[in-house]
Amino acid sequence: MITMEEKSSSPALIRRVNKLLESRLENDKETLEALKELSTFFTENTLSARRNLRSKIERRSLSINDEFLCAFREVKSSLDDIYREVVEMNSSVQSMTHQLQTTKTQTLRLIDQTTKLQSESQKISIQQDVANAFIKKFQLTSSEIAILQGTSREAPTITEEFFTILDRVQEIHGTCGILMQSGYQTLALDVMQRMTLLQEAALERLYRWTQGQCRHIENEHLVPLLIKAMNKLQDRPVLFKYILDEYCTARRSVLVSSFIDALTLDEGFGRTSNPIEMHAHDPKRYVGDMLAWLHQAIPVEKENILTFVKDCDKTDISEQVQQALGNITEGLCYPLKSRIEHTLAGDMPVTVLYSVTTLIRFYRAILSQIVPGSILDITLGDLLDLSEKSFYMKLQSEIRSAIGEHSEPPNTDLNPATSVYNLLCILEEVLSVASIAEGRENDMVQIVSCIIDPLMQQVNEAASRLPIVDMAVYLLNCIYQIQKTLAVYEYVDQRLERLQVLSDAQLDTLASEQSSYLVAELNLRPICTILQGKEQGPLSAIPGMDYHSIKKLSEKLDMFCMTSDMYFLPQTYLLQSTTHRREAYKRPLKVVAAIYKQLYDACHEPKNLYQNPETLFTRTPDEWLKALIQEQP
Fold first, then answer.
1. Distance from the Cα of residue 397 to its chain's centroid
2. Four-CA torsion 575, 580, 585, 590, nearest 10 degrees
3. What region, left, alpha or beta, does residue 523 occupy, with left being phi > 0 and alpha being psi -120 to 50 degrees?
4. Which of 304, 503, 559, 611 maximizes the CB count within 10 A of its CB?
5. Which pLDDT tens digit goes with each residue over 532-563?
6. Counting Cβ atoms within 10 Å, is residue 570 exposed (0-12), middle (13-18) or buried (19+)?
7. Which phi and psi angles does 7 have, rounded to 5°?
8. What is the DSSP string of 187-240?
9. What is the DSSP letter of 563?
């Protein structure tokens, strides 16, 4: 039987049981931890063990509390020790705080004094830095002054450091303007005066050194220093001019000495061969070697002087440099002029004399670009004029010698006289040299005129003594030889055109004479007169123009076609030019052919009353002319 108390407690138990059944242990960490702890000492699941579980749990709880109590006792003991130490530390801190307050009071006074001292020290340091910076900016050191004045043992002569210091002096002098703008006029003026004195003394020393060293321009170690020295002295025109004059004097002496050595010794500028004067017997080589030496040496001198003033302002000193180069080369004029004049005075072939002239002209054109307007340029111009004058005098002398006092009469073969061939040989020799010379156009025209004009005068004078046909043939032969000589050269076109005009005129004369001769030999003159006359009735009724006379004349003209060469003047066979011979044949034949055609046309006109005119002529004018041309010699 269930008691009432049990009945009343049953729902509560049921609820707990249900709660336990409904609970999910995997989500209840506390329960899991409790069960895990329980498993450490509840090892046997027996009835006895379950009944004693509660007492065992209580005993285990008691044991744990005892262990906790023991551990807490030790903690308390440690805390007591800590408390005592903290009390002691507090006492020490209180003592130290008192001492610190006392020290702090004393330190504040000390810091205040230190701050004042530091402020004063900083001001003094700034003032010292400013003073040092000013000295460094506006003053030179004693060693720099010693180098500038030449009293330094380390640099007793001019060195790169000298120019560095001189640049600094100029910089300081220019910077003083900033001081003046800042209100320090007195200080700036004092510094400027000091720098001016140092600069003048330095430039005076630099001038003396440069004047002494400018003779050694070949020294590679001195060249950079001399270049800088000239740049510094450019602002002193008088000193600059004195140095250039000294340099010119030294270089002129060296250049003349080198030229004399090249003339007389196995040495000289760029020479390792024999002396130039060993070839004095060969005018062309002798003059050419001397001028070639100048062509090599003078550009080097120009390069040296341009190097000497490389850092200077070219616009300010270009005229001085050009004048200096002219002064250097002036010493060469006398030895060069005397030798070339002596050479030109000697007896030499006209071609050699022209070659010497072209050499002088060529080198003068080159050197005049290097030293324009100089004494050397003027000297070379005078030598060129003298050489050209000598050449034309020599050429005229040879022309007169070739022509002789009296013109040579033509040969019986009407070929050019020997004097003509001699002059043409001279012309060909001179033109062969002139055709490869500098400025050959004017020379060739002038040379041709110098020779051809007297030649044509001599030819015309000789031809004037001949009969008209012989004269025409002789002139044509002479003109042909002249044209053949000139045809291979340039710049003679105008002369060839003039000769062609003369040739055409003589051909006209020869053709006219030949035509007259043919007309006379063929007895065509009366017929020409009749054909060109006014109306006289039918031609067949005129005496000599009847059918039988015309038939006989036609047969004679047919015979002329086959033997036309027998009717030509014998002088035409003496023409040297095939073209001239062809023209001398062709033009008269055209005259005869024109008469033949005129006669043929007149005989075929009905008004002239020729019976069966087609039987008078075996050929038409075109056929007759064709046959005539084929039979030409």
1. 46
2. -160
3. left
4. 503
5. 765 566 777 777 777 788 888 888 887 877 77
6. exposed
7. -60, -40
8. HHHHHHHHHHHHHHHHHHHHHHHHHHHGGGTT-TTTHHHHHHHHHHHTT-HHHH
9. S
